[in-house]
Amino acid sequence: MLREYRNKATLGYFIMHVSNETFKGDGITDASLKSINTFVFNKGADQEVLIDEIKYRMPPFSVLPLMYNQHFVFEHPETLVAWQFNREFYCIVDHDAEVGCVGFLFYGIHHPMFVLLNKKEMEDLSDIEKNFSEEICLEDGFQGEMLRSLLKRLIIKITRIAKKQVKSYSDFSNEKMDLIRNFSLLLEGNFKKEHEVKFYASALNKSPKTLANFFAICHELSPLKLIHNRIILEAKRYIHYTDKTAKEIAYELGFENPEHFSRFFKSNTGKNISAFRKDD
Which residues form the signal peptide (predicted)? Predict the structure, then answer.
């Protein structure tokens, strides 16, 4: 079952999936999903999920936040509950940063983040699910605001649970965690043009050395490695989900020299682009 809410004036879009066999995210090939974030609620057994062509196991009794640009396919989508929303529905401006489209769940340290739920938390989310099911059917002037209120409640609930489970979050101040989140936001908006750490450090009012030292303490990857990983991830998405040539992908990702991009891709994946596409 799929139920949706649309606001023609704001282009706000909210979707609720329950026992929907066709539920999946089609990544960059589906323009309608380009700005949609997703929460997946697994109330049953563990199952496999393919995220950007990488296999994971989604644990039982867990929630998985998925960003707008991720491609995903679940082994048993009919057993899941999922909520999807675009920026126009919930994030018209980036207020309430921790519980918005730029918050901890989408721009934190760990991705994918499987948030495990205890019995009480399962009951709480099941209650929220029930409220969503009721409101999505009430087509009146209050529907959009009620759905947004429920979504904010859901995000706050999951954020609280997730922060308790991420050890590194409790180890560092909010200021330090905000630096990681702000770096991730900058990276998402600029990785196709800016490939050097100095750009991101300057935007964050830090020196490249200070930023690198900070990530050495707070993150398992350096800023440069995160930049490279994001470029490679996007390159793989183009290879998997489009017919773009290697030269076209190189230009899309800010490489003026396609040969330089080819060497960059091979050094980071161990394969050249044609071999990677052949293995797909």
Answer: none
List alpha helices for the chain, DSSP H: 87-90, 104-107, 119-135, 143-165, 167-171, 174-190, 197-203, 208-218, 223-241, 246-252, 258-269, 273-279
Tokens of 207: 């020196």
Q: At what angle do helices 258-269 and 223-241 cross, to 10 degrees?
A: 100
CA distance 218 to 8: 43
Q: What does the block give as tokens for 89? A: 């529905």
Query: Mind listing the pLDDT tens digit for each residue in 114-133?
Result: 999 999 999 999 999 999 99
The set of residues, in sequence order, having a beta carbon less than 8 Å from that of 197 and lying 6+ positions away, is 208, 211, 212, 223, 224, 227
All structural domains of the chain, each given as residue ranges with its CATH number in brackets, are 2-169 (2.60.120), 174-279 (1.10.10.60)
Q: Count, in order, helices (H) and strands (E) of the chain.
A: 12, 10
Q: Cβ distance 77 to 20 under 8 Å?
A: yes
Write the pLDDT tens digit of every residue in 67-86.
Answer: 877 889 999 999 999 999 98
